[in-house]
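Lecture 7 notes. Example A: sequence first, then its structure tokens.
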Amino acid sequence: MRQDYDQFAARDTEVVAVGPESAKKFQEYWEKEDLPFIGLPDPDHDVLKLYGQEVNIFKLGRLPAQVVIDKEGIARYVHYGKNMSDIPANEKLLALIDEFTEKQA
């Protein structure tokens, strides 16, 4: 997401990464990596439960999930990955955002 963040921002789209770490650990990581998007700590798994993200202890925790939510709060696209390499390419997410934007215009 970092390498294409400017393309998301150009589409008036905000990237939010949600993870299981504490707020302190999240802040330390975000500052160390100088990430341009929002990091949301979710140590109690509240967001995970809200969007149905799966936890698999045999795969070291949360499985990846990508959700595209429009400005009205409607989830327009959801992808639940089977492992950490099962993540849609940024190009696919950008194309979906373009498609949703065209339909709303």
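Example B, a different protein, same format:
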Amino acid sequence: MQNLAGIKVMVIDDSNTIRRSAEIFLGQAGCEVILAEDGFDALAKISDHHPDVIFVDVMMPRLDGYQTCSLIKKNPKFKSTPVIMLSSKDGLFDRARGRMVGSDEYLTKPFTKDSLLQAVGAHAAHT
């Protein structure tokens, strides 16, 4: 089990189930977890919490994952913060679109505990 103690991870997803499972998986690994229900909620919390890694769901109401990622990456303070897209679609187009807005990785839902922790471990090391 990877020890990710003290790493701040934000999970932005409009699904309560996804947020809960991510919170449990990450919490068990020692991460500090910040949850947001959508892009607007997330943008307000990012500046307060300065997460080390951000997971963002692609399909969300109001502000989708691509727009949210783009806004995070346009902010000079958070440009280098790793953003990992979460999507139930695993298409090339979606991955390419994610890269275009600056995302660092693309994780397909439903994710496993291992894939989630691996992504955090890989990206948190660079911060």
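Note on Example B: The helical segments are 16-28, 39-49, 65-74, 92-100, 113-124. The longest helix spans residues 16-28.
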